[in-house]
Amino acid sequence: MAGCEVVVTTSGEQALNAAKELRPQLVIVDLHMPGMDGFDTVAALKVLPLNDGTVYVAHTTNSDPALLAKVRNAGFHHFILKTSGFATFEALLSSMAPSSS
Q1: Is 38 left (phi over 0), alpha (psi -120 to 50) or beta?
Q2: Which of 38, 83, 87, 101 is most buried (most C-beta within 10 Å)?
Q3: Sequence-separated (6 or more) residues with CB below 8 Å from residue 15
């Protein structure tokens, strides 16, 4: 709907494999995945030769202040609650779109 190609993976390991091939501009990561959690996944992604400007978004149901601090310290650029809906993602994507001027 926002003009983006979307690739969905179901684990951190799958995300790493997909990122190696696709070199994404935006990575939205669930923080509470089985196996590799979102923090481990992003740490592993950050050592791959992806796009220099890859944006990392933490996605979870928990808005605890301690978790938000951990998200910032882990190098995520944005934090989106699962309850916030598509409009929040749409606003993020719009903010990332290249300027037409």
Answers
A1: alpha
A2: 38
A3: 9, 27, 29, 41, 45
Q: Running along the chain, 101 residues long, what does each successive block of 10 average in pLDDT?
A: 78 92 90 90 89 85 89 91 81 72 47
Q: Is the pTM of the predicted complex or chain greater than 0.70?
A: yes
Helices 38-45 and 12-22, axial angle in degrees (round to 10): 30
Dist CA 81 CA 79 (whole Å): 7
Looking at residue 101, its pLDDT comes to 47
Q: How many domains would you assign to the chain?
A: 1
Asked if 29 and 41 touch (Cβ cutoff 8 Å), the reply is yes
Q: Does some domain include residue 6?
A: no
pLDDT at 99: 55
- 46, part of any domain: yes
Which are the contacts of 38, defined by CB distance < 8 A and separation ≥ 6?
A: 12, 29, 30, 31, 32, 58, 59, 60
